[in-house]
Design a protein that fits this description.
This protein is mainly alpha-helical. The protein is built from eight helices and three strands; from the N terminus they run H-H-H-H-H-H-E-H-H-E-E. The protein has two domains: 48 residues, no CATH class; 79 residues. The radius of gyration is 17 Å and the shape is elongated.
Length: 137
């Protein structure tokens, strides 16, 4: 949640090598790869008792992708004098999700964003089929 990941020494000291690929995936922000690894190793994670804990990472990954798009939008604001950098168009969010390996439709993306807002991962609101207005990440 705070962006702190276990070090290589910690992974070597304790037998959690089954999490190495998952940690790298989360660091890089690849949502589709994260979901694939959860699906393929689901029974192992359930046996270890960490499956539900790992399911809490997905909204954080989505928040990270939104934060990247917000940084991109802010840089556009500085260069092209866009009037409101806290308004992220839905199409831009779709492009960032696609770059992380996750393609989605507008309705599904709005549902995901609504869940992130409801869970408190981001603060803002959705302008239907137009944009996400960020108040605070």
């Amino acid at each position: 949640m705070f962006g702190i990941f276990p070090s290589v020494i910690l992974i070597q000291k304790y037998p959690i090598s089954y999490l190495e690929n998952l940690i790298e995936t989360v660091k890089l922000g690849y949502l589709q790869t994260f979901q694939q690894q959860i699906d393929t190793k689901q029974q192992l994670f359930i046996d270890k008792g960490i499956f539900l804990l790992l399911m809490h990472i997905e909204p954080l990954l989505l928040r990270k992708i939104i934060a990247k798009s917000m940084v991109f939008r802010t840089n556009q604001f500085k260069i092209k004098q866009i009037r409101k950098p806290n308004i992220i168009p839905i199409n831009l969010l779709k492009q960032f999700l696609k770059s992380s390996g996750y393609s989605t439709k507008n309705d599904e993306l709005e549902c995901i964003l609504a869940n992130l807002i409801w869970k408190g991962a981001i603060k803002g609101y959705i302008a239907h089929e137009k944009a996400l207005v960020i108040i605070q990440i």
